[in-house]
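request received
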Amino acid sequence: MARKKVLIAPSILSADFSRMREEIERIKNADMIHCDVMDGMFVPNLSFGPKMVADIRPHTRLPLDVHLMIEKPQRYIEAFAEAGADFITVHYEACGEELSNVLDAIRRLGKKSGAVINPKTPVSVLQKSLSRCDIILLMSVNPGFGGQSFIDPVLDKLREARKMIDDSGLDILLEIDGGINAKYAPLAVEAGADVLVAGNYLFTSDDIDAAMESMRKHAGAA
Ligand code: DX5
Ligand code: ZN
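response:
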């Protein structure tokens, strides 16, 4: 079987914000950069807004994957599009019946659109909006903080989402976010993930390149 390409997306939530430019340099061999936006309402934490994305933009050519953990995300998609996001992902739990409309609005801004679900939300809620998605993100921790442990039953959800995407014949990336490390990277890829977000694991490692390479290697072998 052909080796599957696995994309690594370090989460800058775990970076040192006072040295962000150097941190961006440290992850130059990643495939995309995951930017966690939190509003203190949808999740019990605050992170950063569009200015961080705009400030990073000139310092990397990597796609910026903006994960909006905010209420009524439609209020801010234009701001993040202008700031230089490439992917903008919004939570089903924050959009409800508006999800398809919000995804369409992201595409109208010329950006890749994505839907995110929390660990307890079933994959089936995404079926209706599938044709509007360029990426689907499954949370493997409850959103709000880096450094949490992977919730094992999400591996079954990954398999289910993989099947839903494959059955649809649509070109949609499957991303997993939360608690990814050397142990869970291969398990997630084996279950069907294309994109691995990793915050704590990568930013606490002395050699980020080696850590990313081992994630790719082990994942490819799965
Ligand atoms: C959690 C964020 C994640 C987080 C991942 O709310 O959406 O992207 O930063 O960090 P780790 O890999 O440390 O779980
Ligand atoms: Zn995230």
